Amino acid sequence: MRVGIFFIIGLISCTQQKPEPMTGTYRYDAEFLKKNTRQVIELQDPTGQAKILLSADYQGRVMTSTSTGDEGMSYGWLNYELIGSGEKRKQFNPVGGEERFWLGPEGGQFSLYFSAGDSFAIENWQVPPFIDTVSYDVAEQSTKAATFVKQTVLTNYSGTQFELQIERRISLVEKNAIEASLQVSIPDELSLVAYQTENTIRNTGTSAWTKDSGLISIWLLGMFTPSEKTVAIIPFHPFENARELISTNYFGEIPSERLTINDSVLYFTCDGKYRSKIGLPPSIAKPLAASFDFQKNILTVIYFDVDADGDYVNSKWVLQQEPFRGDAVNSYNDGPLADGSQLGPFYELESSSPALALKPGAKGTYRQLTFHATGNFEKLNQLSQHVLSVNLADLKK
C-alpha cells in the first residue's frame, strides 16, 4: 500500500511540473542566469507580474525585467553564448543587461578606456575590469530593493589616478508611484514594470578631482533586443540651431533613412544591423529618452536629471579641444564591425551625469528611472503622447 501511495504522489508531482520555458520569456532568462551565474537577486511587486533580475556578478546590473510575470516578455538583451561559456574576454564582455553602470569619458585625453599614447582605435580600447568582469558586494537586499558596493582605483589617459567607492541601489517602483511622478493615469489595459537606480561615487583618495587633470562621470547604458521595427525616440528642446548640436558621426555619418530629426524630436532606427550612435548635449537635452518596438508593442522610457549648464565629459575617440562639452543622452545601434564580427545585436539607451569634481571624501549621486509598458497599441499611444508628446500612429505610418 505504501509503495502505491508513493507512486501516486510521484505521478501527481510529475504532472504538475512546469513545461520548459520559451526563449524570450522572463522565466527562460531567470532560469538561465541562475544556472550560469552565482549571485542573482530578484525584485517583484505584490502581484508577481512586475519582476526585475539583478546580478552582483555583473556590477549590480539590471539584467532584465518583465511586466507580465514569469511567462511574459523579457525586456533586457542577454548574450547567452558568452554568459553560458564562462569565458572572460580581454577587451569587453558584452553580457547584456538592460541597465549597466559605467564611467565616462570613453575617449579623449581623459579617457578611462585607452592607455596613454595609444591611438583611439578599436584594438586599443579596453573596458576597465571593475565595470566589466568584477563582481560587487551585496550590502542590502529585499524583494523591493538591493544595494551593491565596490571600491577601486583607476588611471586615465593623462595619468591621473582616481580612488573611489561605488554604491549602486536599485529599487522597484510600483505603478501608483509612477502615476504620481509623471502625473498620468496609466490604463489598466497596459502592463508596467519600473525601477529606479541611485548611483553614488565617493572620492576616497587624498586629492581633489579637477578639470585640469580630468574628471569622471556616471554613465548608465541599457541594452535591449532590437527588431526590424524598433525606433529610439529622443525629444529635445527646440532651440535655435539645436539640430547642429546633435552628434551623428561617432562611427561615421548615419544614412538619412536611419535618422530623422524634426524640430523637437529625433527618430533613430534600432534594428541591430548598422553600427551607429547619436548624442545630445545638455544644452538641448530633455530629461528623458525612449524607444518603441512596433512588432511587440513595447514602450520603454528612461528619465534622468540634466544640468543644462553643466560640464559633461566628451567621449569621442579623439584628442579633444573641448573635453567637457560632451553628451547628456545617447542611443547606440549595434551592427557589424569592419571585420564582419559583431558584439550583439542589441541597441542602447544611455544617459550620463555631469562631470564629478569631487574633493576628498565628497560624493556625487546620479539617478535614473526606467519603465516598460506593453499592451494595447492605442493605450500605449495615449501614454506616449502624454510623456513624450509623440504620436506613435504617425510614426508607424
CATH architecture: Distorted Sandwich
Helix and strand element order: HHEEEHEEEEHEEEHEEEEEEEEHH
- Helix segment count? 7
Q: Cα distance, first to last residue?
A: 69 Å
Indicate the CATH topology.
Answer: Beta-galactosidase, Chain A, domain 5
SS-based class: alpha+beta
In helices, the fraction of residues equals 10-25%
The largest pleated sheet is described as: 10 strands, antiparallel
| Average pLDDT, all residues | 94
Query: How are the strands of the biggest sheet laid out side by side?
Result: 5-6-7-8-18-15-14-10-12-11
Give the tags.
ten-stranded antiparallel beta sheet, alpha+beta, globular, 397 residues, 15% helix, 18 strands, Beta-galactosidase, Chain A, domain 5, five-stranded antiparallel beta sheet
Q: How would you characterize this protein structure?
A:
The chain has 397 residues and is of the alpha+beta class. The chain has a single domain, classed as Distorted Sandwich (Beta-galactosidase, Chain A, domain 5), CATH 2.70.98.10. It contains seven helices and 18 strands. The chain has helices at 2-15, 26-36, 80-85, 175-182, 242-245, 377-387, 392-396, and strands at 40-44, 51-55, 61-66, 100-104, 137-141, 145-155, 161-172, 191-203, 217-224, 230-235, 259-261, 265-269, 276-280, 288-293, 298-304, 329-333, 347-352, 363-374. The chain has a ten-stranded antiparallel β-sheet, with helices on one face. It has a five-stranded antiparallel β-sheet with strand order 4-9-17-16-13, with no helix packed on it. A hairpin with a 4-residue loop joins strand 14 and strand 15 (298-304). The N and C termini lie far apart (69 Å).
